[in-house]
Amino acid sequence: VVIWGLGFPDRPYNIRKIGVNRLIDFLKHDPVYGGCSVMLGVPTYFRDLNKDCLPDPYLHELIRSADIVLPWMVQRFTPFVHKEKDRYRDHIIDDIAWCKEQGVDYVPIVYPGFSWHNLSKSRPGLARHTAYGAIPRLGGKFYWDLIHSAITAGAEMLYVAMFDEIDEGTVIMKCAHTVPVGKSIFVPYEEGIPSDHYLWLTGMAGKKLRGENPFTKTIPERE
Fold this sequence. Notes:
4-stranded parallel β-sheet, two-stranded parallel sheet, 6 helices, 6 strands, globular
């Protein structure tokens, strides 16, 4: 069971007052409905309680009471920055070490690209995210760079963002190469790649996590 949105400064609730601790306890220990594994969705910088995270150490208490921590990293890393793969890898290494000390499992996020152009029209505060195709897919190279870096860092599972999120440009399900253009503008898949390209790359990542195939730093080729 995932409880999403703890520690984000733009949420209208106080994590100390909404009873999340009781909910976690119920999901894990209730004699009838308990026995669940609980995953908490938190900001990227939950470990240091800064940047995109509330500076409240109570978040760490909640994390320690759960089973898995999932930091939301979409849009935090981009192929436009030099040695970004290394920064992402090192960030995950430190997160994994912290989570081991706290006795919780850790799952990093990988994503193929990003575009928030449509949502920004109704939310002026997102002006810095408005660029169409702000994080380009590069034919799957960016996605594979994150996958390779996360697994190299020691990740034993991955959370893929997202299967069907067309509006934010993170979709991995089959999509067309040409799309209608109107008030909303969507990012199509690149010409020359199969419509299931990102599903296939996700499958290759799964095989690596299960130890079923060799792992290459460069994006794998389809036979």
